[in-house]
Input
Amino acid sequence: MSVFDSALAPIKALTPYLPGKPVEELERELGIAGADKLASNENPLGCSPRVHDAIRRASEHVQLYPDANGFYLKNRLAARLGVSPAQITLGNGSNDVLDLAARTFLDAGTEAVYSQFAFMVYGLVTQACGATAQVARAFDASHPQPCGHDLGAMLALINDRTRLVFIANPNNPTGTWLARDELGEFIDKVPDHIAIVVDEAYFEYVDVPEYPDSLNWLPAHPNLIVTRTFSKIYGLAGLRLGYAISSPELADLFNRVRQPFNGNSLALAAAEAALDDEAFVAHSRETNSAGLRRMQEWLADRGIDFIPSVGNFVSVRFGERSPRVYEALLESGTIVRPIANYGLADFLRISVGTPAQIDRLFERLEPLL
Ligand SMILES: *Cc1c(COP(=O)(O)O)cnc(C)c1O
Output
């Protein structure tokens, strides 16, 4: 019994975020080398080669604090996105920005709304603020977007205590997505004093004409916060840099709440270089689209159920065999991600790898089916 027990009950109730198994850990455990990590939705192509030079140059000045305002990166992002630099908030990964939104809007007695099966971090940051989560039932297995966000159910949970709504588009771990019309209508219906986070971590990967660019809704909706990241298509997950685009009013609030140097100097330099290499991004997108199509076709051909995805991953229903399939893949050198912690114990989430990694995945999976 500790003196902290009652005061910190909400914190003790938190379940720590469960990351994918690091490659080094698996290789150490199994005494192997060259494992394929398809567990954390990282870019299997690495990052732009320009990033390495940028980091090398920036490394000569690591004794200095980083530019606390990320002047150059914000300007470059603003020009690229057609917004003003005053609308951008940088974060130590977009997870940091999600946390900033929670800390800005939530405290005990207030509520956040998000969907069942939504990205785990929404629940973590909500609970860490002592706020109450209202979790909307997701679509069922027979819906065209199985396990996807049901915006009607989310709207029904909004009440006087609601301060924040989290939407992932597309969502991780389901890969489900919301079309322009339905999401636009939802944003119109949410009262202006409630902040809406639209988490677009996989924005650059999505290859569907009806997928919206949420930035178009910013001028009419000063309560909207769009989050994106350098962790996914840009291949900089290890450097931790994400950002929000919002009204200048909200960006000003986040700027008060954030840690002063929440984007480090190597990450800032790397992100600028990564943003400029449009050919690398295009190549990553094409490789992913082809790999995702190949994986989904392979599964469909074998009658294996999966949630149709527009991200760089697909969640596959192996049913009761899921833990065994996970272990067997691990032992043969492919790390995938169990998602039982999302209430999806029947599924394993598999990131889209390089063509060679996908070949090996199929080879290793075939005998297990
Ligand atoms: C990967 C991911 C993020 C990005 O996290 P970072 O902190 O930017 O690395 C955000 N949201 C979702 C839904 C994700 O899957």
User: Anything to note?
Assistant: Residues 229 and 242 are 4 Å apart (CA to CA). The chain is about 35% helix and 15% strand. Residues 9-46+279-368 form a domain with the Aspartate Aminotransferase, domain 1 fold (CATH 3.90.1150.10). The first strand starts at residue 36 and ends at 37.
